[in-house]
Amino acid sequence: MRLSTIGQIATDCWQDIPEHFENTALDEFVVMPNHIHGIIILIRDADLRPLQQLTHDRSEMYLSKIIHAFKSPVSRIIKRRRNDHVYAWQRSFYDHVIRTGESLDDIRAYIKNNPPN
Length: 117
Fold this sequence. Notes:
Layout: H1 5-15, H2 17-20, E1 24-31, E2 36-42, H3 62-82, H4 101-113
């Protein structure tokens, strides 16, 4: 599949996430016509062990900070390059905590096989 300019900008910014958040790793990812699917792994320590406990304290909602740090430059770059000051993401995002290897494999397959060929 060939990405649009916006799709390529989103991909480039996605791939930059670990440069801004050192305790993250990226997994499967795909750009769809009007949204993205992707897996972000939050790493607890240098042994690359995933975080086991997630907080519900909004001040510590690390994934929200990551998504904001992804969406903001995508919007800024699109608005600047395309002179498109109307472009905007939907207000929120859908997240899901992946708790098992089987679930991770299923979600990876869904992301990989989701785009139409």
